[in-house]
Amino acid sequence: MRLYNRVVLMHRKQIWQPWMSQGRSVLNYSMEHIPHVVLGIPFAVFFMVVIASKEIYKANAYQFNVYKRRLMIRRPEDIPTEYRPFCS
């Protein structure tokens, strides 16, 4: 006969664990989640930094290409007045 753990039995609605009425405090219950949260925050920060740095790199590459494209454009103020049509 197969033994199922608490999560499976709760999922199948065969048991329900009202932990407040079983004498467990909210503090006791929330203590279970502390390691999960404490370990999860550095991972989340690390991946956020990785993703943000990728985005910054892409934005900088794009801006540099815009800068290079604008360098190729000759503006009216670069051309001497005597060579400009319509005295612009």
Can you tell me about this structure?
This protein has 88 residues and is mainly alpha-helical. The chain has one domain (6-87). 58% of the residues lie in helices and 0% in strands. It has three helices and no strands. The radius of gyration is 32 Å and the shape is rod-shaped.
Which key terms come to mind for this protein?
single chain, 88 residues, mainly alpha, 58% helix, transmembrane, membrane, transmembrane helix
Short description:
With 88 residues, this protein is mainly alpha-helical. It has helices at 6-11, 26-31, 34-72.
Number of domains: 1
Distance between the termini: 93 Å
Poorly predicted runs: none
The total strand number stands at 0
Mean pLDDT: 89
Biggest sheet overview: none
Based on helices, strands and strand pairing, what is the structural class? Answer: mainly alpha
**Contiguous helical run count:** 3
- Molecular shape: rod-shaped
Helix content: 55-70%
Sequence of secondary-structure elements: HHH
Portion in strands: under 5%
CA radius of gyration is 32 Å
